[in-house]
Design brief:
Blueprint (H helix, E strand, L loop, with lengths): L3 H6 L2 H46 L2
């Protein structure tokens, strides 16, 4: 994280590059969050299926 003084000292080109980098990283983060949410849903479904299997076939 850059300080206010560091940002003020940067050139326009450097600020644009930093902005692009931050936007790109944010996009990657959002994609990973979506992927993680989907994987959690899959794991929850597997858990429900396993518990159903255990209760129906191993009583």
């Amino acid at each position: 994280m850059k300080t206010k003084e560091e940002l003020l000292a940067m050139s326009h080109e450097d600020l644009a590059s930093l902005t692009y980098k931050i936007m790109y990283e944010q996009c990657l983060l959002e994609n990973k969050e979506k992927e993680n949410k989907r994987l959690r849903e899959i794991l929850d479904t597997i858990g429900v299926t396993y518990e159903t299997f255990k209760s129906e076939f191993h009583e």
